[in-house]
Amino acid sequence: MKRTHYVAEIDASKHASKRVTVAGWVHEIRDFGAVKFVLLRDRTGIIQLTFKKGGSASAHALKNADALVKETAIACTGTVAEKTVAGVGRELLAEELEIVAPILKQVPFEVTGKVPADIDVRLNHRIIDLRRPETTAVFKIRSEAQRAFRDACFELNGQEITPPCLVASSTEGGADL
Description:
alpha+beta; CATH 2.40.50.140
């Protein structure tokens, strides 16, 4: 299943009743028996996936939805809801669900940030910590500042150079260069 849209690109007024495919990580799961809500998070935002038994979701999609745990990588195809009551502002009526990469062991802290995590635990699992919105915000700000500086330099006819890195290394005998 190939992603057709990032979450932030989906607008109910433009994409209502259109079929789209989104991909990302399971952020939250709410199971009410006949209806299951899954919040999917990608790098641009969060969307609510709605699975209704007896609705548009296939039997395979419902089976996969029952196997989901937080931070599982998934791809979902469905129809964009015209009107949404989802707290996140976007809703997709799920039809197909593919588990791209199941998690092999439980994540040792809440990526949602609801429960504070010790810094040592976060640093030991840095790849997971980088999914936290607070952590990614730092990198987004840094990237935007670097881009703005680079653009300003180019407007002033500056030239970007990338000098080689000189790194001291020890020789076989242990003497320093």
